[in-house]
Amino acid sequence: MRGSVAIAGVGLAGCGEAPGWTEMEIAAAAAKNALDDAGLTPQDVDGLVIASTNIFMSGLALAEHLGVRPRFTESSMVGGSSFVGHLIPASLALNAGLCDTVLVAYGSNQRTGVGRAEAGKYKMALDPQAFEHPYKPFNPPTSYALATARHMHQYGTRREQLAEIAVAARQWAQLNPEAFARDPLSIDGVLSSRMVCDPLTVRDCCLVTDGGGAYVLRRAEQARDAPKAPAYLLGVGAAHWHRQISSMPDLTVTAATESGQRAFEMAGLGPQDVDVVELYDAFTINTLLFLEDLGFCEKGEGGAFVSGGRIAPGGPLPVNTNGGGLSCVHPGMYGIFLIIEAVRQLRGEAGARQVQDAAVALAHGNGGVLSSQITALFGTQDTL
Amino acid sequence: MEPSGRGTVYSTTVVRRRPADGGDYNVCLVDLAEGVRMMSRVVNVPPAEVKIGMAVQARITEGLVEFTPA
């Protein structure tokens, strides 16, 4: 599978606030931008992939909206990691010759449309979780707060170290004109913000925005026809061990230990080969756990690893170069934005935040409450 | 097997809530002596004073298992 498919186009739409736009309109606008970027039209699309937290039969809805008649439709839903996970069935379908051009799209209007709180009431009724809901966890923050507290207890990780992650994300966002939160942010500013679930303040938590994204995946030889340099898929791996936080075996170790290893094995690469890292930072603890679990540092050393601006602009390891879910965009499921930023970095079109000579990029998706973990590695032509 | 009701706090958080809505409350994960982990809450102590490693004892209140410091 290594190098057999590549991303030929990426696009964003409605990031930040998109009042009056439906989820499907945002997804379709992002799809149009990704197809334009790939030099293609909706008529070229014969594989369609989408995941939604709200829309029933989202694949049928998007096809109807775009006016396409796909041969391959896929809507696996494993939370925010879904769009990284979609690389797996999409690659298999392309390599089997079931289709030639797969469009993966996402849209959400959770900031200005129906809000999380309102939608949450219905979801609680439709999907009761008998062993957690009676205790009123304010999820997702409560589950991530429990993981954070345990990591602090077990490894001596400090809130200041977690705040470094939020500050680094903000510094990257300040280099990205498309990022939503670009005001200066200090470590003290993170620590003194409103507490949501101890020890997480609102600045340890991702943004709540609208937004959509899309990418176009093709077999490598066809992706080379695109106007932009293809970003080749070098490796991808998935793993999940639980859904609810009370079923997570060890709150300091995620299934990224397995997904990362699988992706690195397929790619024939290791953490030392990665030039730019995009991690699903729903909360500051995510970045720390994934750096450990993907092998960028030892278990328990994440706090020291991120300290002193080491993942911020100018630091030795560029992490979440668009500003991440903490400061760029987070419409509920961030996974697709990891891939879009990885591709932009590999193309060298990331402007002021461009990582010099980026040849290998890692995109790591997280879904649920540290539940679904999916890692992808992309590379330039030179890495094949 | 008769459960002992004994447990140890594995992790804990305070969910912040406006006083008008009932104020802050505890949510935690408890490892039962029998080896099972569950979500619950520790009561009879301010939510921020629930600590990881704390020994706790189960009781049933309005059909729900909750814990008090042992």
Provide a compact summary of the structure.
The complex is a heterodimer of chains A (384) and B (70). With 384 residues, chain A is α/β, with parallel strands linked by helices.
User: Strand order across the biggest sheet of chain B?
Assistant: 3-2-1-4-5
- The tally of beta strands of chain B, per DSSP, is 5
Strand proportion of chain A, as a percent range, falls in 15-25%
User: Please, how many helices of chain B?
Assistant: 0
Structural Rg of chain B: 12 Å
Order of helices and strands of chain B: EEEEE
Find the structural class of chain A using helix and strand composition: alpha/beta
What does this structure look like?
The complex is a heterodimer of chains A (384) and B (70). With 384 residues, chain A is of the alpha/beta class. Helices cover 34% and strands 19% of the residues of chain A. Chain A has helices spanning 23-38, 58-66, 82-85, 87-95, 116-126, 141-155, 159-173, 187-191, 220-223, 256-267, 284-293, 302-306, 324-327, 335-347; strands at residues 5-16, 47-50, 72-74, 101-108, 195-197, 200-201, 210-219, 231-240, 276-279, 360-367, 372-379. Chain A has a nine-stranded mixed β-sheet with strand order 3-2-4-7-1-8-11-10-9, with helices on both faces. In chain A, strands 5-6 form a two-stranded antiparallel ribbon. In chain A, helix 2 (58-66) links the parallel strand 2 (47-50) and strand 3 (72-74). In chain A, helix 1 crosses helix 2 and helix 7 crosses helix 11 (284-293). The mean pLDDT of chain A is 97. Chain B is mainly β. Chain B has one domain: OB fold (Dihydrolipoamide Acetyltransferase, E2P). In chain B, 0% of the residues lie in helices and 50% in strands. Chain B has no helices and five strands. Chain B has strands at residues 6-15, 25-32, 37-40, 55-61, 64-69. Chain B has a five-stranded antiparallel β-sheet, with no helix packed on it. Chain B is globular and about 45 Å long. In chain B, 33% of the residues are buried. Classes of the chains: A alpha/beta (384), B mainly beta (70). The A-B interface holds A 131-132, 134-138, 142, 145-147, 149-150, 153, 194-199, 244-247, 251 and B 10-16, 25, 27-29, 37-41, 48, 52-53, 64.
